[in-house]
Design a protein that fits this description.
Blueprint (H helix, E strand, L loop, with lengths): L1 E6 L8 E6 L7 E9 L3 H7 L16 E8 L11 E4 L2 E3 L5 H4 L10 E2 L19 E5 L4 E2 L7 H4 L5 H11 L8
Antiparallel strand pairs: 1-2, 3-4, 3-8, 4-5, 5-9, 6-7
C-alpha cells in the first residue's frame, strides 16, 4: 500500500513529502492510522546523518500514537478501532533469551522503528512521520487516554519511558536518592 510520509533523501536535505510503500498486514501485524508522532532529538540526528548508519530515504519518527486500522488473523492483543502507540522498536527475533524475558531492546535482531533492517523495500524500516505504519503486535501498546490528549501521549513513548524505566527499575520514590 502506498502512503504519504515525510523524509529526507540525504543528511543535508530537508524533509520532503514522499510516497512510501507499507507491507501488507501479516498474521501477527497491526496496521495503525497515525494520528500523532512526536519529534525527538534522535529523529533529527538520524535524518541529518549525524549518527553513523543512516539509511536513505530516512523517514524518522518513533513516538507514534494512532488507531488500529487492521489486524492480522492471529492478533489477539488489539482490535480495529483501538487507540495504540508504538515506540522505538517494531520487531525482534522473539526467540532469544532476552526476548523471552521481555528485554527485546537487548536482542541482536531488534528492529528499530526506522533504519532497522527489513526484507521490505527499501530494505530498512521507515518511521512514523507517515500516514500509517505496520508493526508486529508485540510492539504495539494500548493507549487509554482521551483522544484530545493523544498529542501529549506521543512523546511519552520515548522521553517518557526513558525517564520512567530507570526510576521503576531502581524503585525510586520518597526518601530515595
Amino acid at each position: 500500500m502506498t502512503i504519504k510520509a515525510y523524509g529526507a533523501h540525504a543528511g543535508d536535505q530537508p524533509l520532503v513529502s514522499l510516497d512510501i510503500t507499507r507491507r501488507d498486514v501479516g498474521a501477527h501485524d497491526v496496521r495503525i492510522d497515525i494520528a500523532y508522532c512526536g519529534v525527538c532529538h534522535s529523529d533529527l540526528h538520524q535524518v541529518r546523518g549525524e549518527w553513523a548508519g543512516t539509511l536513505y530515504p530516512c523517514v524518522p519518527g518513533h513516538e507514534i500514537v494512532g488507531r488500529v486500522a487492521a489486524v492480522g488473523a492471529h492478533v489477539s492483543r488489539h482490535k480495529v478501532g483501538d487507540l495504540v502507540g508504538v515506540g522505538c522498536m517494531v520487531d525482534s527475533c522473539q526467540g532469544c533469551a532476552d526476548c523471552e524475558e521481555g528485554l527485546e531492546q537487548y536482542c541482536d535482531a531488534m528492529v528499530g522503528t526506522y533504519n532497522g533492517p527489513t526484507a521490505d523495500a527499501p530494505g530498512h524500516t521507515l518511521g512514523g512521520y507517515s500516514q500509517q505504519i505496520v508493526v508486529h503486535e508485540r510492539f504495539v501498546l494500548r493507549v487509554s487516554h482521551a483522544e484530545d490528549h493523544l498529542a501529549a501521549v506521543a512523546p511519552l513513548l520515548c522521553a517518557g519511558i526513558t525517564t520512567w524505566s530507570p526510576l521503576r527499575h531502581w524503585n525510586a520514590g520518597p526518601g530515595k536518592r
